[in-house]
Predict the 3D structure of the following.
Amino acid sequence: MLDKLKESIEKLSRLGIVDREHVEELVRDVQRTMLAADVDVTLVMRLSDAIREKAMTKLPDGLSRKEHVIKIVYDELTDILGGDKANVSVKPKRILLSGLYGTGKTTTAAKLARFYQKKGLKTTLVACDTFRPAAYEQLEQLAQRIDAQFYGEKNEKNAARIAKNALKTSADVLIFDTSGRNALDAALTEEIKSVSAAVSPDERILVIPADIGQAAREQAKAFHDALGITDVIVTKMDSTAKGGGALTACKETGAKVIFITTGENVENLEQYDPKKFVARIVGFPDMETLLEKAKESMDEKKAEKVMSGSFTIDEFYSQFESMKKMGSFSQILDMMGLGRFKGKIGDMDAQEGRIKKWKHMIDSMTRKEKADAEILNPSRVKRIALGSGTAESEVRELLANYTKSKKLMKSLSPAKLKRSGMLRRLGM
Ligand SMILES: Nc1nc2c(ncn2[C@@H]2O[C@H](COP(=O)(O)OP(=O)(O)OP(=O)(O)O)[C@@H](O)[C@H]2O)c(=O)[nH]1
Ligand SMILES: [Mg+2]
């Protein structure tokens, strides 16, 4: 979806200088791609005007016209696709799922349960769909598959009663699956309202399939007016080209998309972050931008040191600091065409939270230890853990990452980089 945009941006990145005509061509590409993704035409026009208007304005310090234009496209797209990432609170709560027939409520319930389970919360799936045959069994099976608790009453027809009884089960997160209908009619509205009144959910989530494109606007609005929706989950992003239409339409109604689903498997749930989403489709920042920014953030000597793999643990950390400004670590590797090395350094994105703790650990090291991490024996590790309020295992993890990164950098010798064409692309 929207991957044509990446080609257009790449085309622009290859140009020496960028003039008004190039911008016009890019705008046409953007328009074509967005319309194909079923984005509303007035929105597409607004987007193109914004790009045109801003592209030729005075350049911000340190950016080339090309980077400036790419950044504008990136910012404008991020804005229409939702702006800031929605907050997902990881704490005990009640979640009510609603939506029309077959939108993906039941499977999404299981995916959400999996999400909160992985965060260490005990989760119960509650079968409040008393309408569709075998809805009970479907949810029960999903619960078994992920080893979550399940609550249902096979012969009870009153969804609100089941929901209320489920409150007696002990769980941190309760997820209520409800029945769908062909349209948001009086029966469905009344049923969901009654379930909602019975359990006072913290989140009333609307489940919308991406394949309805911009029709998501009407659906989101109708559900919001009738039920007071707090968040939206857009499902089936993997199986349609219309996801862009669905996401922009949600944003237009003010509905916040918190998750998207990208497949039938229980693991196929992603927190929705418009910035990351756009970075992926636009492929921004491109490698040159990255290296320019990298140059800004470290002097050449330091860069040389990093590239040769001989850096201290302090320098290792400051790399993360400056990289954070450019995007996530895996994005950076992707940009450098080194995505295949991701496995070697572990799941860096997932570790971003942990990286914050690294600073405390490094602050607890002596100057000697920082200069030569090899001397960090178990008793020193213990002292650092105590001093930084972290676990010894976390200190060891930092050291392991440091060592792995050094090895990785060493394995990327200039000769290898040359062969991979990277240096050539940088004009070296
Ligand atoms: N490809 C793909 N299929 C999905 C996704 N999410 C759900 N599905 C499929 O969509 C179909 C409907 O999903 P359900 O979870 O049963 O939908 P529902 O909203 O509970 O449906 P009703 O209970 O009948 O209203 C199933 O075949 C799912 O496997 C997704 O992200 N990608
Ligand atoms: Mg269902």
Remarks:
- The beta strands are 93-98, 123-127, 149-151, 173-177, 203-209, 231-235, 257-261, 269-271.
- Residues 3-80 form a domain with the Four Helix Bundle (Hemerythrin (Met), subunit A) fold (CATH 1.20.120.140).
- DSSP finds 21 helices and eight strands in the chain.
